[in-house]
Structures are given as structure tokens and as C-alpha cells.
């Protein structure tokens, strides 16, 4: 009897995991151009706006040191502030990526006080190449070095809807 209960529990657990993985999420409406992005670090959410209207909410993974503003290169923190999308890379080591215009003058000065570089290469990106099958499971822990991570299909969707120059605000 105990063995049957264990197998039943394992089956239910696997069914719940499969449901989570395959359950369809909202999609960005076709033809929508995203003109503003807001990242809420504490909620692990990225909000995409078009003409002042919220059109999509993404669940994201951040850096392993996700509390607080980025201070210098290598601190494993995601920066906070207002930036712009300054690059689109379809051949990233993380599926695709959107470059964030970090660092700004404030972060450069802050890093100088530590005697360090402010760094750069902050991106919104997918999952490491050849690991995309992880899908939504990547959200179960923060794993980037300061970037904002989405699933591969989510970065595909956002990549097509965002132009260089799009505003992005990263909040605590």
C-alpha cells in the first residue's frame, strides 16, 4: 500500500511539472510594437508597453545577486535605472539578445569610487544555446550574471517587437 502511494505521488508530481511546462502563456498581440519596457526586479517581472498600454507581462530570471543596484563589473547584480535598447543580436550565445545601454554616467562614477570598471554587456536574452529545452524551468532560480533572462520563444517574440532606442526602466 505504501509503495502505491509513493508511485501515485510521483505520478501527480510529474503531471504537475508537465502541466507547468506545457501550459500555454499569453502571447504578444500580432503586429504590436513595444515602445517601453519596465522590469520589476523584486517581482521577477518584465512589463511590455505599446502606446502607454500594457500588452504583455513576462516572468524573468535575474542575476544571482538580484537585490540592489549594480555597483561594478563582476558584482553579479542587475542594474537599476532608465536605459535604452542599443543592440539586437540574433547570434547570441543565449539564443538572441537585446542590448541594454548600461552603464550610464552615474554607474561609471559609482564604480570609479570602488576603483573598478562599471562593466557592460547587460542584455535581455534567452537561454544558453543548446539548452533551450529548459524552457520555463529556468525561472525557478536566478542564474544570470546581471542580465534579464526569458525563454527562447519569449525573446523571439520581444526581439521582433522592439526597435533600437526603445526605453527600458529597471526598478528594484
Which key terms come to mind for this protein?
single chain; 172 residues; alpha+beta; L,D-transpeptidase catalytic domain-like; eight-stranded mixed β-sheet; 3 helices
**Total separate domains:** 1
Q: Give helix % range.
A: 10-25%
- Please tell me the overall pLDDT: 92
Strand order of the largest sheet: 3-2-1-8-4-5-6-7
Please state roughly what percent of the residues sit in beta strands, choosing from under 5%, 5-15%, 15-25%, 25-35%, 35-45% or over 45%.
25-35%
Largest sheet: 8 strands, mixed
The low-confidence parts are none
Total beta strand runs: 8
Q: What CATH architecture would you give? A: Beta Barrel
- The helix count comes to 3
Secondary structure class reads: alpha+beta
Query: Which descriptor suits the 3D outline?
Result: globular
By CATH, the superfamily comes out as L,D-transpeptidase catalytic domain-like
Radius of gyration: 18 Å
What is the name of the CATH class?
Answer: Mainly Beta
- The termini sit apart by 50 Å
SSE topology string: HEEEEEHEEHE
Here the CATH topology equals L,D-transpeptidase catalytic domain-like
Amino acid at each position: 500500500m505504501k509503495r502505491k502511494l509513493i508511485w501515485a505521488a510521483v505520478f501527480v508530481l510529474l503531471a504537475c511539472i508537465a502541466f507547468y511546462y506545457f501550459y500555454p502563456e499569453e502571447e504578444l498581440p500580432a503586429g504590436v510594437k513595444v515602445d517601453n519596457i519596465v522590469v520589476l526586479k523584486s517581482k521577477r517581472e518584465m512589463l511590455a508597453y505599446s502606446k502607454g498600454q500594457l500588452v504583455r507581462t513576462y516572468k524573468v530570471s535575474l542575476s544571482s545577486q538580484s537585490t540592489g543596484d549594480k555597483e561594478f563589473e563582476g558584482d553579479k547584480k542587475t542594474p537599476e535605472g532608465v536605459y535604452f535598447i542599443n543592440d539586437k543580436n540574433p547570434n547570441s550565445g543565449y539564443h538572441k539578445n537585446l542590448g541594454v545601454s548600461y552603464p550610464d554616467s552615474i554607474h561609471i562614477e559609482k564604480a570609479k569610487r570602488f576603483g573598478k570598471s562599471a562593466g557592460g554587456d547587460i542584455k535581455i536574452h534567452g537561454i544558453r544555446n543548446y539548452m533551450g529545452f529548459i524552457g520555463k524551468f529556468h525561472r525557478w532560480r536566478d542564474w544570470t550574471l546581471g542580465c534579464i533572462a526569458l525563454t527562447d520563444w519569449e525573446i523571439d517574440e520581444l526581439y521582433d517587437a522592439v526597435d533600437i532606442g526603445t526605453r527600458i526602466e529597471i526598478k528594484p
